Amino acid sequence: MKGYKHGDWKHLLHAPVEIRHGGKTVRAGLVDAVMPDSSALWIAAEGNLPRQMYDAARGYEVWVTPRELDGHSAFRMTSELLAGGLKQPGVLATTGDQPSDAPS
Question: Is pTM, for the whole model, over 0.70?
Answer without folding.
Answer: no
